[in-house]
Write a structure and sequence with these properties.
By secondary structure, the chain is mainly α. It has one domain. The chain is 61% helix and 4% strand. The protein contains 8 helices and 2 strands. It has a two-stranded antiparallel ribbon. Helix 5 packs across helix 7. It is elongated, with a radius of gyration of 23 Å. The protein starts with a helix and ends with a helix.
Length: 164
Amino acid sequence: MESYRNEAREAVSIQLEDADAEVAPVPTSVHEGGASYPDMNPLSVILENFNDMFGNINWNDADNVRRQILEIPAMVSKDEKYRNAMKNSDEQSARLESERALQQVIFAIMADNMELFKQFQDNPSFKKWLSDMVFNLTYNRDGTPYDNNQPRQIMKSLQKDNDQ
């Protein structure tokens, strides 16, 4: 018991220098010299992955579902809370905001396509695929919205996820 008291006294007696100082931020990556951007694949990879994973779903209006899936990233990236999280938070927090925004977009388009909503709610692998695809297309440290008019591309990581 006496040794514990000594340790407690020593811990309390630690004093910091009384000086102005600045603590450097913790590095968030091992890359030096600017931002690194992942290699991207064309839109055809999105559709190919989608068909490989969910081609067995009998969509009543498959073209409408594909069209809406391609519009989702732009809709999610315009969410103000998600954009704020991309700019001011770590990747994990941004992912949580992306998933929240995706859920809101799915509810918003539910009226147009009940099939997509049903798969999103009932099919965990479809929900994960869509969540990953949307996050990977929209996440950037600047918080800028995804532009649906730019060449549509997707991260190679999605293809790697499907290969595993």
